[in-house]
Amino acid sequence: MPVGTAATVKGLTPDDLRAFDTRIVLANTYHLWLRPGRDTIEELGGLHAFMSWDRNILTDSGGFQVFSLESRRVLAESGVRFRSHLDGSEHEFTPENVVAFQEALGVDVAMALDVCVKLPAELAEVDEAVRLTTRWAERCAAARRRPDTQLFGIVQGGLDEGARERSAAGLLPLDLPGYAIGGLSVGESREELYRMARFTAALLPVEKPRYLMGVGTIRDLIAAVDAGVDMFDCVYPTRCGRNGRALTRDGDLAIRNAGFTRDPRPLDATCTCAVCATYSRAYISHLFRAEEMLGPRLLSYHNLARLAQLMSEAREAIAAGTWAAFRDRQAVTL
Amino acid sequence: MPVGTAATVKGLTPDDLRAFDTRIVLANTYHLWLRPGRDTIEELGGLHAFMSWDRNILTDSGGFQVFSLESRRVLAESGVRFRSHLDGSEHEFTPENVVAFQEALGVDVAMALDVCVKLPAELAEVDEAVRLTTRWAERCAAARRRPDTQLFGIVQGGLDEGARERSAAGLLPLDLPGYAIGGLSVGESREELYRMARFTAALLPVEKPRYLMGVGTIRDLIAAVDAGVDMFDCVYPTRCGRNGRALTRDGDLAIRNAGFTRDPRPLDATCTCAVCATYSRAYISHLFRAEEMLGPRLLSYHNLARLAQLMSEAREAIAAGTWAAFRDRQAVTL
Fold first, then answer.
1. Catalytic residue at A60?
2. Residues of chain A predicted below pLDDT 70
3. What is the least distance, in Å, from the CA of B181 to any CA of chain A?
4. What distance in Å separates residue B109's CA from the closest CA in chain A?
5. How far is A314 from A49, CA to CA, in rounded Å?
6. Of A44, A242, A294, Cβ closest to residue B13
7. Are the C-beta atoms of residues B72 and B62 closer than 8 Å to each other?
């Protein structure tokens, strides 16, 4: 899922996203709650109409963002109070109001409010986060009013297998239409990420979407698909796009490098996107050196298109029963 | 002509430009000379191939930019030496090397090297600039090698009618395929701009393109077309686009204003562009408030499309013999 935190995938239009067959984008409850706010989006006809996106939208619950605020939030059984990073104003998220907000926006997939812990953490803290995440998921499920909004639960539990098991065991009785693996990709090692993603994915029903939050890079996507994960979101492709980093089959390119200034080749010779069909590395390198805004636009487009192609190829390989061979062929970038 | 100083109309792709029937863009000799440089552009197949633009390109000669450097340039009969604003490196423009550069880039219209004076100026200084501009135009004409590059001359003369007459009289014997009116839109009053544009346009052959450099706004375009001008360039629509100012039939809108935050209407109800067909003022206002890069992209697109529509309508009105009525209908924005 391309990330459109503030109701826009940075620099790209819905037409761009459809051009490489994007089916769902992610937006963010925390950011949209603060700006432009629920009333504005409702008045404009809901989030799809507001951002002119007619396909699926998933909103993160805001749990992750609020817990990133650290000193500016107070956690209680009822919910979490926090101060806006924009203007310091006070707000509270509860399981109920976060579900109501996402339903008011009319999103297709809403995420339950969860409690993230900063790693490393004591097991007691991890267990308390799991307990509260479970309780809040129950309250989120009870607060649902719209049958057309799919509520996903989020498995927490840090890097502890027992805690992950307890979290999954608490959520599965709710029979939610999908489950996410949260609390990872927050600074732990790649090996820990892969181990916990694989362990947790195996706890979740194979017939429902399994979503690894905050991932990622080409190698992380391949590893997570191998672990059974179906959905991802990450700012990585668009952030790289803004910073001059191109994702290619031969690894990442720092497009400002002197070696690209006269390189007539496309970013990635195997890529079928419009940017690779149209522009040379030399031109895109020039755009970044001249600090031209077309550079981030073109590179964000390519990076997202590149990951969309990768996932499309992964689906084909799985369907054809050739996943292992496909996975191993990607090893060059791992 | 949308301005693409550094081989990119800021934020937009060639596809965008073609969508509102752009036939020619402007690029800049001074900027491209310094970065990425002639060798790179030639090696990539010329400026059209480099920036993936298959329609016309006009390059300004760099005269205006060099004279803006003031303390960093030295003017002589032979040419003008200057230091790069990027790295302080020394360069020289001569009539001959500026023509050779533009021909090497393969542009469709090349501008002669001219001498701009800062206004207000003594008549002696204006006259000397006219003399040198005439002499340099002769040298530019003699330096031409490619029959497919059209060389335009530039009429100087500040705000003095006699100097403008002497400048035009010096250039017309060269029988160039087009003539520009330079040295205006540099801080003089709107009345002076209109008066000098009208006076100078009348000195130039009606059967050849007359190009008013550095103009402009909707009201300036209407006034200049009324004076007989055929071509324009200005950073105004794209600069406004980046800064949150929308050009509309009802005047400019500062899109960040609180009044637009819940406004479901398009930027301009009479505009046929893709942005007006797709997005609300509320959404674009949100993008600017959230400092999202899609905002400048969408607004730059709309502003250029809006001016393209205005010029298209002007051509139709002139062809239909209804120009005066059309001009007077635009008075609401004048």
1. yes
2. 331-334
3. 29
4. 22
5. 31
6. A294
7. no
Nearest residue of chain B to residue A50 (CA atoms): B283
- Kindly state the DSSP code that residue B26 receives in the 8-state scheme: E
Q: Please report residues of B whose CB lies closer than 8 A to that of A7.
A: 283, 286
Which residues in chain A have Cβ-Cβ distances shorter than 8 Å to B283? 7, 44, 50-52
Q: How far apart are CA A285 and CA A282, in angstroms?
A: 5
Residues 6+ apart with CB under 8 A from B225: B311, B314, B318, B323, B327
Cβ pair A99, A144 in contact under 8 A: yes
pLDDT digits (tens, 9 = 90+) for A237-278: 999 999 999 999 888 999 999 999 999 999 999 999 999 999
Q: Based on the residue annotation, tell me whether A16 is a catalytic residue of this protein.
A: no
Q: Are B287 and A40 inside 8 Å of each other by CB? A: no
CA quadruple A134, A136, A137, A142: dihedral sign: positive
Contact criterion met (CB below 8 Å) for A274 and A263: no
> Which member of B11, B13, B36 has the closest CB to residue A286?
B36
Long-range contacts (CB closer than 8 Å, 24 or more residues apart) made by B192-201: B192/B159, B193/B220, B194/B223, B194/B224, B194/B227, B196/B159, B196/B161, B196/B164, B197/B223, B197/B224, B197/B227, B197/B229, B198/B226, B198/B227, B198/B228, B199/B161, B199/B164, B200/B155, B200/B157, B200/B164, B200/B168, B201/B227, B201/B228, B201/B229
Specify whether the CB–CB gap between A297 and A278 falls below 8 A. Answer: no
Q: How far is CA A230 from CA A213, A330, B122, in A?
A: 11, 18, 74
B274, closest residue in chain A (CA to CA)? A15
Tokens 């607004």 belong to B299
pLDDT per position as a tens digit, A97-143: 999 999 999 999 999 999 999 889 999 999 999 999 999 999 999 99
Quick one: closest CA in B to A263, which residue?
A: B44
- Are the C-beta atoms of residues A170 and A134 closer than 8 Å to each other? yes
Residues in B touching A286 (Cβ below 8 Å)? 6-7, 35-36, 40, 50
ipTM of the complex: 0.97
- Residue A6's closest chain B neighbor by CA? B290
CB contact under 8 A, B286 and A261: no
Contact between B317 and A31 under an 8 Å Cβ cutoff? The reply is: no
Q: Which of A52, A278, A293 sits opposite B293 (nearest CB)?
A: A293
Report the C-alpha gap between A330 and B12 in whole angstroms: 34
> B45 to chain A: which residues are within 8 Å by CB?
264
Strands, DSSP E only, in chain A?
A: 24-28, 56-60, 73-75, 80-83, 90-93, 109-111, 150-155, 178-181, 210-212, 231-232, 245-248, 251-254
Nearest to A261 among B36, B286, B296 (CB): B36
Taken in order B124, B126, B131, B136, the sign of the CA dihedral is positive
Residue B118 burial (CB count, 10 A): 13
Q: Which of A16, A114, A233, A268 is catalytic?
A: A233
Of B2, B25, B16, nearest in space to B109 by CA:
B25
Q: What is the DSSP string of A145-180?
A: --TTSEEEEEE--TT-HHHHHHHHHHHGGG--SEEE
Chain-centroid distance of CA A200 in Å reads: 17
